[in-house]
Amino acid sequence: MKDKLTREEREVLRAFQKGELKSVKDSGAEKKQHAAYAKASLKKDHRLNIRISEQDLKAIQLKAMEEGLPYQTFIASVIHKVAHGRVVHHP
Predict the structure, then answer these.
(1) What is the pLDDT of residue 1?
(2) What is the pTM of this model?
(3) pLDDT tens across 26-63, in order?
(4) How far apart are alpha carbons 37 and 31 in whole angstroms?
(5) How far is residue 59's CA from residue 53's CA, in Å, rounded to a whole number?
(6) pLDDT confidence of residue 84
(7) 22 partner at 20 to 30 Å CA-CA among 36, 50, 62, 91?
C-alpha cells in the first residue's frame, strides 16, 4: 500500500524530519476547544442508503482492501473528499 500525501502534508513531514516543528503549550480551555472541533468534524450522525451494482460494490471493496480500510469507511472517505473538493471527477 502506497500512501499519497498532499503537498501540504509533504511540507509538514519535511519540516518535522528537519526538526523545524516546535511543540506549543495549550491552555486547558484551548485544548478542550480543539477537541470539540475534532469531535464535531468526525461526527457521523446521518445515514445514507444507496443501491449500486454488485460489480461496483466488489470493485469498491477491493480498493478498500488495498487501502487497508473497511469498505464503508473507504466509501465515507471518498464522499468526504469529493464534498470538500479534494477529489476531482474526470469524465
Answers:
(1) 43
(2) 0.52
(3) 677 777 777 776 777 677 788 899 999 999 999 999 99
(4) 10
(5) 10
(6) 81
(7) 36
Q: Which helix (H) or strand (E) holds 10?
A: helix 7-17
> Which amino acid, 32?
K
CA atoms within 13 A on the CB side of 80: 10
**Interatomic CA distance for residues 32 and 34, integer angstroms:** 6
34: Cα separation from own chain's centroid: 18
Question: What is the CB-side half-sphere exposure of residue 59 using CA atoms within 13 A?
Answer: 5
3-state secondary structure 23-85: CCCCCHHHHHHHHHHHHHHHCCCCCCCCCCCHHHHHHHHHHHHHHCCCHHHHHHHHHHHHHCC
The number of residues making up the chain comes to: 91
| Grid cell of 42 as nine digits | 468526525
